Amino acid sequence: MFMLFQLSACCLLFLMGFSEAVISCLNEDGQPVDWFIMYKLPIYKMEVKGSGVDYMYLDPSIMDFQISKYTVNSSTGALGRTLTQLYSGYTSNSSVYMLYNDAPPELKYPSKYGHTKGVLMFDQDQGFWLTHSVPHFPPFPERNYSYPLTGKYYGQTLLCITFNYTQFPHISWQLAYLNPRVYNCSVPVAFRPDIGEMAQICDGKTPAIKNRRSLQKLQSVQGQTFFSFAKSQNYVDDIYTGWVAQALGTDLLVESWLHQAHQLPSNCSLPWHVMNINAVCLPGPQMFRSYEDHSKWCVSYTFKDQWTCLGDLNRDGGQAGRGGGLTCCQNSVIYKAFRKAMASYKHC
To answer: CA 170 to CA 165: how far, in whole Å?
Structure first.
């Protein structure tokens, strides 16, 4: 009888541990991963029409971008699996979540907010921060996962990083500078002392900030160092030229949406230069022009520096006066994947 009780108790503990999965970025197989990057391909690649929902995928277990067997509008890929944690658990009081997008789904998007897009979900153990470039995404939690039809046309990038809980107070501080257009959120009482800025933003208030910009060092759950650059609307400058290139001490090749008439030209006026990428070529080969690509990323010009940044802002004069940011790291796998993707650029 005692042995039977012990066996039942062990089985119960096993089942409890199995059912209480940690909140994390999830890979293509649904397993926790330190980080992943998705590069959604545009519908037109040099006049050749594609599906608009295919994407390249990269995580720490892969040495280069590879075409996914899933599509971005499916809940079975890394993005859908990761966000399903939100759609299945958003009613819980044991976790925080926040969805923000300057072009939110179903709502108008006034330009007073930062040009920034992302999703956070975490509990008092860990969680994920997903930053991306896709307007009208993701849907409200009550709607379940889907990908917008408007998101098919251009290329898009998405970066998901898994963090321990100790990092989210620093991320909360960065959000105050980004001034995000939050369209759905929940910050239970137990979390509010640690993430006061997120709580204020969720309540529709504007947190006070001390400076025009903020740089925070973050560490993923597996120890990868990331640097979060967040500028407020009061820092009126091109984030790539005026800040990031100078702070990192490296010339940058920048891919951003060079579609509008008021795009900024390549700039070599400061000690560290910034040059616009004109065309992208991913494995396959998948080649497309910059104006077919709504993603925002940059890499060091020289291979020795190995900086890669993904983020929110275009090199656009109109966005110099809006909040936004970049997340940067020195990771050789990420750098080589993006550096090889640079097909051509415009020197100063």
So the answer is: 10
Q: Which residues contact 222 (CB under 8 A, 6 or more apart)?
A: 34, 60, 162
**Contact yes or no for 324/178 (Cβ under 8 A):** yes
> Read out DSSP for 99-128?
EEESS-TTS---TTS-S-EEEEEE-SSEEE
Radius of gyration for the chain, computed over Cα atoms and rounded to the nearest angstrom: 20
Identified catalytic residue from 115, 136, 273, 294 = 294
Our answer to whether residue 259 is catalytic in this structure is: no
Nearest to 264 by CA among 204, 165, 346: 346
Q: Sketch the domain layout of the chain as residue ranges.
A: 23-346
Q: Quick check: 92 pLDDT over 80?
A: yes
Least confident of 7-16, 56-65, 113-122, 200-209: 7-16
Beta bridge partners of 161: 35, 129
Using CA atoms, how far apart are residues 308 and 300, in angstroms rounded to an integer?
7
Tokens read off for 213: 């910009």
What are 293's strand-pairing partners? Answer: 155
In this structure, what are the phi and psi dihedrals at residue 168, rounded to the nearest 5 degrees?
Answer: -70, -30
Strands 66-67 and 44-45: unpaired
Summarize pLDDT for 262-304 with one digit per residue, the tens. 789 999 999 999 999 999 999 999 999 999 999 999 999 999 9
**How would residue 20 be classed by pLDDT, with cut points 50, 70 and 90?**
low
Helices and strands in the chain: count of H runs, count of E runs: 6, 21
Query: How far is residue 31 from each of residues 61, 85, 150, 158, measured CA to CA in Å?
Result: 12, 12, 29, 18
